Amino acid sequence: MTTARPNIIVLHCHDLGRFLGCYGHPTVRTPNLDSFAADGIRFDRAFATAPQCSPSRASLFTGRWPHANGVMGLTHGDFAWDLHPGERHLGGLLREAGYRSVLLGVHHESLARPDTGLAARLGFDHVDTSQIMATPVADLACEHLSELAGGQPFYLQVGCFEPHRMGGARDQEGTKGFIGDHVEPDDELGIEIPPYLEDTEPARVEIAELQGAVAHMDQAVGRILGQLDRLGIADDTLVLFTTDHGLALPRAKCSLYDPGLEVAMIVRYPARGWLGGRVHTDLLSNVDVVPTLLELLGVDPDGELHGRSFLGLLDGGDYRPHEEIFGELTYHDYYDPRRCVRTGRHKLIANFSNAYAFMDPSQSWNRRCTPRVEPMAYHSPVELYDLAEDPHELTDLAAEPAHAATVEELLARLHTWMARTGDPLLDGAVTSPLHRRTRDRLVR
């Protein structure tokens, strides 16, 4: 087994969940990522720490929970959440360890800044966020790979926007779809409606758009992977592909149900034997990625990490699996604090507000996809789902006496986690950067 330090590439996209052919979705055309999974290691039960963009990415790149690292909401515009001053980013940690560190495309894990400011804050040698769409980002990545190959080991972080919703001239009035002005809908292999949504004609139109955006993203990833082969560095490069959270559909993104938290996670590193199409079903969280990479490289994180390394799982050696994983939502479009604990069998969600049962990420006045449950219902304080009998989390069991012991056990686990990691929700309501900024204008 190699002991050399590999090049490291993290490829990530928006709002994908596990909507790929290799994850059992036959109508989604993703030949490049399917081939990558067949050649690497696929994780079938990997989850995000949060069902929205910035908090999840902040965990992915710091190894710490959103409520601990400071990013409890979106980082752009007036949302303005940011990493706490002492938080360390993977790009900076690897640069200090001797890596050439480059960020290209989507950045959404700390306060939006000019590229030079981002490089200084996060510790990158170079940042270029001038392009975020998949094709030009792939162009940038291929160009930088040509420059990076053959020198010191490098860390390359590449993010693309698709398949996030994006407005375009072809959108129907009152809707925001997935195709913008540059993607074509794709129903060549049929249409797969997620089982938590009603199968209607408007939903089929929208899912065709989504499938087209995913296929477009897959083509860009394929170009980047192909460049590794052309440069002769694929064997000595660790590539991790993932996404931030689930699909931008009702009851997925912005919810703590599995469709909101589930993520694709595929890893390949040929020189260490991380290949062959292995599939793992252990529970993983994206907060585990940083501890794993740092353990691989023998790098001291210089601070507390919340994730658990799964290096042993990748190496086929000893590994202590998670008994449960956790998820959280505090702010997205609005304040809707929720926390959850998920075991192999059950999901418990604790709700701290009187908001609707789940946020709707459709970004549209006229919604085309309809949930199979009443969307305008309000939170109950606690929800419980039996994932073996009810994998789509449609039947809440929390109020049933037969499940009272399970509710109490999972509430205790959730409380222990929140207390151990310093979750501010235990002390009361959390205010946003906008709240504080507007208050300061009132009182100055």
UniProtKB/TrEMBL annotation:
Organism: Actinophytocola glycyrrhizae
InterPro entries: Alkaline_phosphatase_core_sf, Sulfatase, Sulfatase_N
Protein's UniProt keywords contain Iron: no
Listed Gene3D superfamilies: Alkaline Phosphatase, subunit A
Family label: Belongs to the sulfatase family.
Name of this protein: Sulfatase
Annotated CDD domains: SGSH
Record carries keyword Amino-acid biosynthesis: no
Superkingdom: Bacteria
Keywords of this entry: Hydrolase
Domain Sulfatase N-terminal, residue spans: 6-299
